[in-house]
Amino acid sequence: DIQMTQSPSSLSASVGDRVTITCQASQDISNYLNWYQQKPGKAPKLLIYDASNLETGVPSRFSGSGSGTDFTFTISSLQPEDIATYYCQQYDNLPPRLTFGGGTKVEIK
Amino acid sequence: EVQLVESGGGLVQPGGSLRLSCAASGFTVSSNYMSWVRQAPGKGLEWVSVIYSGGSTYYADSVKGRFTISRDNSKNTLYLQMNSLRAEDTAVYYCARGIQHLDYWGQGTLVTVSS
Fold it and tell me: Which residues of chain A have a CB within 8 Å of the CB of B53?
């Protein structure tokens, strides 16, 4: 099974700061990597799909990059409404299954 | 507008059964891959199951043999039949559209397995 290692598990940053979260896969997953935002008591929301594609309606301060085993998620200028937990997720098709990273809780300093 | 609404959660004793429903609107369930994902209290996300548009089904090892995913095309509704429930199945269960990535999610329904 493919393992996803997401780091850090939590971070505290100031409004306007650049925030970076990384996700490492235990084997090559090409670009089958997605990023979600989950606010307390709410369902996750897809932000980035296929490593670097911004989902429709998602602000452009969110971005993703990477391929193979190493991936990065960036918030270019942290806003108060970005307080949430962020998860990476990979897709494996043989057999079909999804694996999520452990999550990164983002707080305002 | 795409909408997913789960129902059927509740308190059940260990070894018991429960069936979750996910009513969809704004798209056709049978034409899409549909997944279930769960989240134990205070924990991360765990994929549970998927049903393909063609009807093939797949499960996480943790629920294989106990859970069954299905759909009713006439009701545009997805289901998750959960049998032989264990304490570790306690979680909020979400239905979501997709498998490679999950672009729409329901609000979730809480399942508590406890005596």
Answer: none
Residues of B with Cβ-Cβ distance to A42 under 8 angstroms: 107
Residue among A8, A48, A23 nearest A99 (CA): A23
pLDDT digits (tens, 9 = 90+) for A43-70: 999 999 999 999 999 999 999 999 999 9
Chain A touched by B110 (CB under 8 Å): no
Q: Which residues pair with A49 in a beta bridge?
A: A53
B81 CB-near residues (< 8 Å, 6+ apart): B17, B19, B67, B68, B69, B70
**Quick check: A103 and B45 CB within 8 A?**
yes
B101-115 residue pLDDT tens: 999 999 999 999 999
Residue A103 to residue B44, Cβ atoms within 8 A: yes
